[in-house]
Amino acid sequence: MTIALKWRGALTNEEINQLHAEGFDHAYVEDDWTDRLSRLSLGWVTARDDQGLVGFVNVIWDGDVHAFIEDTLVAHSARRQGVGKRLLAVATEQAREAGCEWIHADFDDHLKSFYFDACGFRPTNAGLIQLR
User: Fold this and answer.
1) Class of the 4-118 domain?
2) Which residues, given as ranges, of the chain have pLDDT below 50?
3) CA 57 to CA 23: how far, in whole Å?
4) Between β-strands 41-49 and 52-61, what pairing exists: parallel, antiparallel or unpaired?
5) Are the C-beta atoms of residues 5 and 46 closer than 8 Å to each other?
6) Pairing of strands 102-105, 52-61
7) What is the spatial distance between Cα 72 and Cα 70, in angstroms, rounded to a whole number?
């Protein structure tokens, strides 16, 4: 099966909401992704196979030198095929081309190997305050 990646690829709210629910194991929510992406994102990467959207990553930024990886998603049917690694490679290259000097990613412990080993991120100190 061929999976095509595209920077700023077209998508609908319905398909990203479905993928988000699957990827983060929560109920389907009708969020307005098209509005959110147009207002807050440097860009995003879509991954599609012949069935539709199977991968997504959002790249938000500060408008200057820092980019941030958010909502890395790969459908269950497309996992363990290198899709996530390819999504982040495109996101990283596009952030670099936009003039960003840094790309940040927060992730849960079980994803350390993916981000550090497969994608080339390195550990860094960070802080977090839970607001809700």
Assistant:
1) alpha beta
2) none
3) 11
4) antiparallel
5) yes
6) unpaired
7) 6
